[in-house]
Specification:
Blueprint: H1 9-20, H2 24-34, H3 37-42, H4 45-64, H5 74-79, H6 87-103, H7 130-150, H8 154-181, E1 186-188, E2 193-195, H9 203-215, H10 218-238, E3 241-243, H11 244-261, H12 266-269, E4 273-274, E5 277-278, H13 287-301, H14 303-306, E6 316-318, E7 323-325, E8 334-335, H15 336-339, H16 343-353, H17 357-371, E9 382-383, E10 390-391, H18 402-414, H19 426-443, E11 444-446, E12 453-455, E13 469-471, H20 476-486, H21 491-496, H22 502-523, E14 533-536, E15 559-560, H23 573-585, H24 588-605, H25 631-644, E16 656-658, E17 664-666, H26 672-677
Antiparallel strand pairs: 1-2, 3-6, 4-5, 6-7, 8-9, 9-10, 11-12, 13-14, 14-15, 16-17
This protein binds 1-deoxymannojirimycin.
């Protein structure tokens, strides 16, 4: 049979128009078919002759078309990026469709059309911010216009189809989790069971919920919502130790984002739409449940701050007892990134509850960190909660360092830093800018022989040498640099308004270089997936050979992948940065790179029975599975891919900050200073 159309909104418009205009031959054909074929043909000798001709013709067409099943479907062609309007590429597909239309009425859409969340009223901007207001309004209108224009062409169909493929992946991931691990933190997709690796709060459910809302996957919204309503409080009361940072970014962040996206702040949002449905359509549970759970969790997490003798919180909390303790390793140190990555969530919790204690505790950490000595804005990866001082000299933007830098920028944005409301958080932008200068001066290197730009580490501090080691985690930096330079505007609009300084343009340029490097870390392997850690060959190390890279890859000599680092945890940082860079530059290459990465995830990490699995070795085509689906695959990786392929007006970066686990929280310009002041 002919290929089945992957119906989208655009297909509906296209096909309706097409079937209205019929040629004379089509009209005869239609008349024959609609007026009782057997009666007409059987009543006379001429009729019998006609019937014979008709049957012979049908037989011929059926045989001629029988090869279609073995050919790639139209959907597949679209996914591969072929121009479906180019008849030389798909002439046979058109032939197949012609046969299909001969005896079949066009089917109604089989895929639910998705509308962008209507977030136009989400941010109340202060009257002092006229300039930014105007610019942002203009940006929004412009984006709408270009989105409207592009919807008419085949490129738009291509990306909508690819976006639908991400939704299918999300459903497959959730399906595995629901079947084998519902209520556990994570799915072990190969052994088909669950594991409580994050303290037992059903972390996948909460991490996935706002992704389902944004995608409009109702079944998951219902499942997750009712689990949170019925089970989560018991978990808080029963469960023991959790890590403060992981619980804040995944569980608290997920609950707060769900509260916002489901219209919890009705006086604030004016009603958020998602997935083509008004928020009132699916208030299961009442959004206030999300807020109540968030507040309860926030209260328990507060013990990490109140127990510590310094503003640096302890790393762990026993939820059921509401007590905290320092880490049981690393001499009780807290990770710098962990202590400095609680502010978006706790500050927003204060905003929506009206209780300033959460935001105050979190912001005190940053105000304290402001006073500590740094190396050109760069900081060691450990903090001692007893003394409040940094511990050790290891400086890196990978694990334990990463989101310190990310939150300096995002907390500044969230509290109105880009507008005139944000003077009280100006110090955060200063700390961020100093850190970016430090990164440029001390951490950037270029690989040998092809000069890929990378971010290295200073394991022995400022006086030691630069190690050309880069964690995949560092790939968040490309997105942060682009966001910091553009403040969420498109480059085009920001340039037109004369808002980009020389430094902003340099930062954007560095962001683009780093995004390329991060993409090449995927591109260099046999599977097309990134390893957890890479090293870059330096000009001093001119040894031959591809260490882990596939033969023939452009950067196989530049990128060295050590055997112990060859695993992939389904991490989001590269696609996160591609998403931000696409929003800022609108350069289609970022979408193409994202699609390539998605295809590799589909090929190597999908588990037939449900879910996706992290891998043990991305450098071999056998890519052995590690048997774990991390919560952030649903919370971050698939969400960023979905947004990358979608309409750029959805969750605009001028109005939302994504926490480090990709949970969107609104930027609240006017109220920022007041919220902070009331906490003093
Ligand atoms: C996530 O939990 C967050 O993105 C965090 O900031 C870093 N690690 C993972 C994803 O890799």
């Amino acid at each position: 049979m002919a290929s089945v159309l992957p119906f989208t909104r655009d297909d509906v418009v296209y096909d309706n128009a097409k079937f209205k205009r019929r040629s004379p031959l089509q009209a005869v054909k239609r008349t024959l078919l609609t007026r009782g074929l057997s009666r007409l043909c059987g009543s006379s000798g001429l009729g019998k002759l006609l019937a014979l001709f008709l049957l012979a013709g049908l037989g011929y067409l059926a045989i001629a078309n029988s090869g279609a099943a073995a050919r790639p479907s139209l959907k597949r062609l679209r996914l591969q990026g072929l121009d479906i309007s180019n008849s030389s590429q798909i002439g046979w597909v058109r032939e197949g469709r012609l046969l299909g239309t001969f005896w079949r009425k066009p089917k109604p859409p089989s895929v639910q059309a998705r509308r962008a969340p209507n977030l136009s009223n989400v941010v109340k901007q202060g009257s002092e911010n006229e300039t930014f207001q105007e610019i942002f309004a203009d940006h929004s209108a412009q984006a709408q216009r270009s989105a409207g224009q592009s919807r008419t062409n085949s490129e738009s169909i291509l990306w909508e189809t690819r976006q639908n493929a991400v939704v299918e992946a999300f459903k497959h991931a959730w399906g595995g989790y629901k079947s084998y691990a519902m209520g556990f933190d994570e799915l072990l997709p190969v052994s088909r069971r669950g594991t409580d690796s994050l303290g037992g709060l059903g972390a996948t459910i909460i991490d996935a919920l706002d992704t389902a809302m944004i995608m409009g996957v109702e079944e998951v919204v219902k499942d997750a919502g009712s689990w949170i309503e019925k089970e989560l409080l018991d978990r808080f009361n029963e469960k023991g130790q959790v890590n403060v940072f992981e619980t804040t970014i995944r569980v608290l962040g997920g609950l707060l984002s769900a509260y916002h996206l489901s219209g919890g702040e009705s006086n604030f949002t004016g009603g958020v739409e998602w997935g083509g449905k008004a928020s009132s359509h699916l208030k299961v549970p009442d959004p206030r449940i999300y807020l109540e759970r968030a507040r309860d969790l926030g209260d328990r997490l507060m013990s990490a701050f109140t127990s510590s003798p310094s503003p640096v919180p302890f790393s762990d909390v026993i939820l059921k007892d509401r007590v905290a303790h320092p880490a049981k390793f690393d001499g009780g140190a807290s990770s710098t990134s962990e202590a400095a990555t609680l502010q978006l969530e706790l500050w927003y919790l204060s905003k929506v509850t009206g209780d300033p204690k959460y935001g105050k505790a979190a912001m005190d950490v940053l105000e304290h960190l402001k006073t500590l000595p740094k190396v050109e804005g760069l900081v060691p990866i450990f903090l001692n909660p007893h003394t409040g001082q940094f511990q050790g000299s290891n400086i890196r933007l990978g694990s334990r360092g990463d989101s310190y830098y990310e939150y300096l920028l995002k907390v500044w944005l969230q509290q109105g830093g880009a507008g005139s409301d944000g003077l009280h958080v100006r110090y955060l932008r200063t700390m961020y800018d100093e850190a970016v200068a430090g990164i440029k001066n001390r951490l950037i290197g270029k690989s040998y022989p092809n000069e890929l730009v990378y971010v290295g580490e200073l394991p022995n501090g400022a006086s030691g040498g630069l190690s050309p080691k880069m964690d995949h985690l560092v790939c968040f930096l490309a997105g942060s640099l682009a966001l910091g330079a553009s403040r969420g505007l498109t480059k085009e609009v920001a340039l037109k308004q004369g808002l980009l300084t020389e430094k902003d343009l340099q930062d954007l340029n560095l962001a683009e270089e780093l995004a390329r490097t991060c993409f090449e870390i995927y591109n260099v392997t046999a599977t097309g997936l990134a390893p957890e850690i890479v090293y870059f060959r330096t000009p001093e190390d001119k040894s031959e050979g591809n260490d882990g890279g596939k033969a023939g890859a452009a950067y196989a000599r530049d990128i060295v992948i050590k055997p112990a680092d060859r695993h992939n945890l389904l991490r989001p940082e590269t696609v996160e940065s591609l998403f931000v860079l696409y929003r800022v530059t609108q350069d289609p290459k970022y979408r193409e790179w994202g699609w390539k990465i998605f295809e590799a995830f589909e090929s190597f990490t999908k588990v037939r029975t449900g879910g996706y699995s992290s891998l043990n070795d991305v450098t071999v085509l056998s890519a052995p599975k590690r048997d774990k689906m991390e919560t952030f695959f649903l919370g971050e990786t698939l969400k960023y891919l979905y947004l990358l392929f979608g309409d750029i007006t959805v969750l605009p970066l001028t109005k939302y900050v994504f926490n480090t686990e990709a949970h969107p929280l609104p930027i609240v310009w006017q109220d920022a200073e007041r919220t902070l002041k009331s906490s003093r």
